[in-house]
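Posted in: Structural Biology > Protein-Ligand Complexes

Title: Requesting predicted complex, zinc ion in pocket

I'd be grateful if someone could produce the 3D structure tokens for the following input. Sequence and ligand are given below.
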Amino acid sequence: MREYQVSVAGLLRGSGQQQAFEIVSALEGLYVTSSKVDADQPVAVDGEVEAAGEGLLVSVRVRTRFHGECVRCLEPVSGDLEVEARELFREGETTEETYGFNGEVVDLSELIHDQVVMTLPAVPLCRPECLGLCQRCGKNLNLGPCGCDLERGDPRWAGLDQPGS
Ligand SMILES: [Zn+2]
Ligand SMILES: [Zn+2]
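-- Reply #1 --
Done. Output follows.
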């Protein structure tokens, strides 16, 4: 978890306004109920740190891939995840309201974690029009009809339901 650290010694000493960074590593704990970023999946971040009045302004772009399970048909789903953020880091500990930094190093792990978790699909679908599984027999209806007739009733008996006959 120490990999996403950016040295800002130069910025703090007033030499230069910006400090660019580009880091590829991996992070654990990136998951929501139905999707996740694997712990060994590379997570690429790039961006820059700027000296701001009350702290350091961090602009970051995070890119990785997620894996999940379609909530309708339970088939595997994966896709690219990209998110950009801009956050102020203040000297001190990270709290619920603000990101903190100590000494001459800004640790971006928490920010990356928060952004990825917010962006992971909560309801992943293999495709928007996924037909899901048959509630009766469990067949994946994307592969074709299963022969069960849940809503419409059995067509062989439809004639008997006609009113007035
Ligand atoms: Zn599906
Ligand atoms: Zn069925």
